[in-house]
Amino acid sequence: MNKADIGLVGLAVMGQNLVLNMADHGYTVAVYNRSAEKTTAFMEGPARDQERILPSYDLKEFIDHLSSPRKVFLMVKAGEVVDQFIESLLPYLEAGDIIIDGGNSHFPDSSRRTEELDRKGILFIGTGVSGGEEGARRGPSIMPGGNKAAWPSVKPILQDISAKTDQGEPCCDWVGENGAGHFVKMVHNGIEYGDMQLIAEAYHLLKSALGADHGRMNQIFTHWNKGPLDSYLIEITAHIMAFLDKDKEPLLEKILDSAGQKGTGKWTGISALDLGVPVTLIGESVFARCLSSLKEERVAASKILKGPDAVAPPSDESAVEDLEKALLLAKIISYAQGFMLMREAASEYRWKLAYGSIALMWRGGCIIRSAFLGEIKAAFDKNPNLTNLLMDDYFAGVAEKNQASLRRTVTLAVERGIPVPTLSAALAFYDGYRSARLPANLIQAQRDYFGAHTYRRIDRPRDEVFHTNWTGTGGDVSSSTYEV
Fold first, then answer.
1. Is 351's pLDDT higher than 60?
2. pTM reported for the whole predicted model
3. Quick one: which of 9, 81, 195, 332 is 20 to 30 A from 40 by CA?
4. Are 81 and 101 in contact (CB under 8 A)?
């Protein structure tokens, strides 16, 4: 019997396309799905005439198809289902065999699985896979982490099926230990949330403040995609603007304005809060989706709560140019926050993340692929210890050139009563980050006043803490203090 190079469990669309991708690259793949009907449909449909794809109808048969060390790629629903499949597979596996989880698992689960399976002699990889159905078929971005002993065995396969940069470099490399791969994928998805909300706000401004119709918006987004904003999401937005329904009217305006989410953006925000990193733009993008879901409340509020009086849109193109520059700077700030979060996580979890390599992994195949990711890689190649992207000469230069446009764009939105939570968050972060002194000294005084939480002084060593008896009746006993 022919032995497979790798096996894949889970034949939904992503799983099927990854299998076909592997077969295209010369790998023999065993496949298994809990529903035998789906295996049969795959073999009689997309995999028809594929000699390199071996169907299996029970787990023992599936494992028997695999060459040693056995490599099992799970493409199943994140959470308990992953653990259930791992438990089902273990009786058939031997020491040194490899399990790869390619779903959207939460990174603490991947850390736990790495450690638990290592104690049983099984090597675990938790890998982010980005690019959607088309990416899985033609080449996704792949972000593997976990037990590094497994990497040499799977590296050729994963790098062969991944997307490639224009220079032919694979958009896949080892990320780090334990849950590092899924953490980086989580941050990728958080940045994706931010990108999508920023573009949605640009659409809202073009339509409601600048009076652009869908034909004009298609032209604008198409033009933007030829410059620094060149990216997958800008490209598909241009296509969406031009897409007409059966009645020849824009389909976009018939879609309910209530956005769904699967949790990775929320996880990014929670991780940012846990680690004390101001990932404000991604947080606002998640809350914007939450606010959009309050459709009935918003409709009722729109009949009661009044905004500014309507005014005619600006007559020149300068506002469109400002919006383009504002969107670019805001996107850069979002990425800067994402890399800040990865940097803090690397310190907290003792991961050795290569930030330039991560930027390279995102240059092709994934949803957030964009032109300036090459500049991010260059920034970290130049300075691997870069604290913030905005401190790099290139990005600092963009900020200097574009900040006035971001200010004018946010001002326009405020004057017209158009919500721009992520554009506003980008500007607030930029101004906060560049401020040598913020009003947090008052917050510390307030905390010490009502709770004796202590404070530090600018004229004394940072390790000294002080408490003041502000009222004269509070006494000199202070509370304990802590840092996020």
1. yes
2. 0.92
3. 81
4. no
